[in-house]
Design goal:
The chain is mainly alpha-helical. It has two domains: about 100 residues, DNA polymerase, domain 1 (Orthogonal Bundle), CATH 1.10.150; about 180 residues, Orthogonal Bundle (hpI Integrase, Chain A), CATH 1.10.443.10. The protein has a two-stranded antiparallel sheet with strand order 1-2. The longest helix has 20 residues. The chain is elongated, with a radius of gyration of 21 Å.
Amino acid sequence: MKPISKHITDFLEYCEVEKGLSPTSVKNYAQFLSQFSRYLDTSKLSTLSPKELDSEIVWKYRLYLSRRKSPRGEGYLTKATQAYYLIALRGLLAYFVEKDIESLPPDKIKLPKGFKDDNVKFLKLDELEKLLLAPNLKDSKGLRDRAILETFFSTGLRIGELVSLNINDLGDIFKRDDLEIKITGKGGRTRTVYFSKRCLEWLKKYLTVRIDDDKALFVHYNPGRAQDSRRLSPRSIQRIVKYYALKAGLPHSITPHVLRHTYATDLLSQGVDLRMIQEFLGHKNIMTTQVYTHVTNKELSDIHKKYHSGDKLKN
């Protein structure tokens, strides 16, 4: 069976393409997980498979981190630094869950006491509104980008799922004010995704100004690129989200996956059952969805009541 260390490269590519993480975030994951690989090597566990990883090995790794000297030569690793190493390992285990690789559940990775886990990032009402209002709606590119942002928040699609959408998937969109379609997501699993009336209005505005015959729903406007299809790539979508996040004055770490988190936390705060959210997101294992449970609080509930229907947003 493939050892854990051999899965790390696949995990980093998954973070880059499917989760839409920034190059800096992927680099950090690589750095933190390299420490776990070194621990396995020094413990003569270099051939350890995901299935063989157990709580005892994780506990010994935590001891290893707590006794490790700081690279700066000033005592030992801080609790916060230790936590980042453990969060990276938890991310790897969550990846195993997504890929149906038998391993220890992510929630078995406990963080140092007193460390605040901010692993799930999402936007609040005012931040999301700034992002949605950032595109310039006077040109077709701006309308496309507004439609992309609205689609992410309305559907909770993964970046790869959004990129693969075709115009025909929307059927008679111009005759409808609601829409649900079947998509094939990760692992070849089929699920239903739902478009809000608000999202459909922006998709209609975007498609109205499309003059090409490309089947892709979201296309680029670069005439110098000679290729069979003008379909936007995952990397292009990442750049679009980052561009408007910066333009709106939001943190540069805003990614398509943050919009997916925002979608999920909004639903959860309203009281939607976790199993239903699992279906909406296309998670095969409920353990993956449970990452959102720690963000349920009154503030999120208020945000959802004010925002998710779209009634309080501008045009």
